Amino acid sequence: MFDFKHVESAELAKQLRERHAVDTLQRLYAAFPSGLIRRGAAGTEPDFIVESEKKQVGVEVVEYFRPDIHEGLPVKAQEIFTAEVAAALTKLCSVAGLRNVSATLTFDYDVRLTKRDIPRLGRWLISELGRVAQGEIASYRVQHRQDLPVGVSEVWAHHRPWADDPYIGVSWGGVVRPASEYALSQLIARKERKLAQIYHESCSEVWLLVLVDPYNVASMAYVAPDYRLTRST
Question: Per-residue confidence at 23, pLDDT binned at 50, 70, 90?
């Protein structure tokens, strides 16, 4: 389906995802250290440092992509490309003057899309979301192939008067597969070796934050309820 190429802003986008994850964890998880968050010094400190009057706590962030193949393509490649398309469509809707609307797209994995398809998808989306943006209808859903542009299998839009800027997201309809316990254990073991060798010199405590399929909020991975992480040796 996808013709994906890395973009110059890929590293910046990764840093923004990581910072958003750390900010969210601090806001939602009471046991997480409080304090000011700053970026860690490369090579000598974890990805982020939480500074308080009493101590300095490190946070190492790592992205874990399930090695799944969905409809013949790696999940990672699909998520990277659809995230780029959604961001481009959001910008097109904003330039067109659409406000107070959010929409999610489910892509058709039987169709190969490239970035050259973005203007075509943008024109269709702008024409369809006008009534929702103006509040004439609260919700709008299109799921019949004959009513959709090639490459999209479903669109669901909502009027949101509390948010001025438009937002286009991705709804991924793939099967939720179990996360690989072995892969997670190996990932954690690698980070713990690094923690012991470097990070304890600058921090008395270091957290490891694992982001599963981080490009897509709709992505999920099932972990058995009896699964417990054991410290590597």
Answer: very high
Q: At CB < 8 A and 24+ separation, what contacts does 57-60 make? A: 57/33, 57/203, 57/204, 57/205, 57/206, 57/207, 58/199, 58/202, 58/203, 58/205, 58/206, 58/207, 59/22, 59/206, 59/207, 59/209, 60/191, 60/194, 60/195, 60/199, 60/206, 60/207, 60/208, 60/209
- Structure-token match 């169709």, residue found: 111
Q: What whole-number distance in Å separates Cα of residue 52 and Cα of residue 37? A: 9
Which carries the bigger pLDDT value, residue 187 or residue 96? Answer: 96
- Tell me the pLDDT tens digit for each residue of 67-104: 665 555 666 677 778 888 999 999 999 999 999 999 99
Residue 85 to residue 91: CA distance in whole angstroms: 10
Asked if 210 contacts 201 with a C-beta cutoff of 8 angstroms, the reply is: no
- Predicted confidence (pLDDT) at residue 231 exceeds the cutoff of 60: no
Given the structure tokens 């790696």, which residue do they identify? 74
Quote the CA–CA distance of 26 and 22 in Å, as a whole number. Answer: 6
Q: How far apart are CA 107 and CA 109, in angstroms?
A: 6
Q: How far is CA 46 from the centre of its chain?
A: 21
